[in-house]
Amino acid sequence: MYPAYPWEAAFTAIEKQCPEYDLANTDIVICSSTLGNLNRFARGVDKSFRFVLETVGDTVFFVRRENSPKDLIPDVRGYGHTFLDEYTTWRPDLAGSESHQRIIQYVFGGLRFLLRFESDGYIPEKGSQRQECSSSDGQRRMPNKTLEAEVASLIGKLGGDHTPEPTQSSGDLKVREGGRLISQSAIIDIKTRSMFDFQTRTVKKEIDMTDLTPRLWVSQIPTLVVAYHDRGLFTDIRVQDMREQITQWERDKQELLGRLAWILHELVQYAKSSMTRLEVCRTDSGPLQIRRLIGDAPVALFPVLKARWTEDDDLESSGHGSFSSHDNSCCDIPLEAHLPEHQVSHDWKDHKDYTASSSEKRGSRSPSCAPRLVAEGFPEHSMLMRLMSLF
């Protein structure tokens, strides 16, 4: 909604709701999408992504770079949005809302995180008169109807026009307070899946958790709602408590999490050492590229808000505070030819184990697969332009 300053709305909300919050107590500000992409990179999953590293005070912002809203994703089929439209509702005072964004804090690998993610809803506390799934910012209900009535209602609703009314924005950020605090333990993630596998031409009933469990771990979402449909008709809706499965995944993936923590520590170090903002990008199965930023990339916070958080009145004198010519004067140098790997390759066992957090020490083992840094053809003193590869 605010592409020029992606973290503006979040930090304005924090300023209103938690005026005592101190940005100095946070090492990384990141969204679940970016952290999830780094998690996939650590797992060796092919995925293209990019984001900007920007230092504000002593905190590093990971600013996701979006594709054009005009880009089309081919061969996408599903009923996820239809399911949310039919089985959930917003309270009247929240009509027209696009999404609900939550912000949580936790410590991972010795780094203090502030993470933003989109929430599908929440399950009310026990004792409610009816079973509901409500959004933290409003109310999303799972109707308490018989299956026959549910099907009849669904068919009737699907016959109408459910195109959302276009919303108008003045371009100015406006704050409206309301609602109540919802515990993170009540938050849910909703997924829809077809009972029929079109590739194998067989009936399936179990959802693939390979990528879902890491996503729930990143956002610390304890409950998963899976709705199975037969050609768009939802007949099987399951509510799964994922806490034990997420905990077991964390125990089993200590090697992976060690790699992820190492990557995050390296990125933080690069960002703090740079005189300009940096862009991090990856294409398909390629390495993680770190380069000096060029062009009009989003800035984490509006300068006035940034000054309030850093108590720095002279933003233009800072390398990261300058959003004009200083950043854009740097060339985007392609990272292709590189020096022999052995000159700068690192043995993982020589690095600190970051998998145990400072607040909760967990047993861990040193990963046998070491991430490697491959230096590019730059002067020796230039330690910012690196090619990061795990394999």
UniProtKB/TrEMBL annotation:
Superkingdom as given in the UniProt entry: Eukaryota
Region (Disordered): 349-371
Compositional bias (Basic and acidic residues): 349-363
Protein name (record): Geranylgeranyl pyrophosphate synthetase
Natural source organism: Aspergillus japonicus CBS 114.51
Taxon lineage: Eukaryota, Fungi, Dikarya, Ascomycota, Pezizomycotina
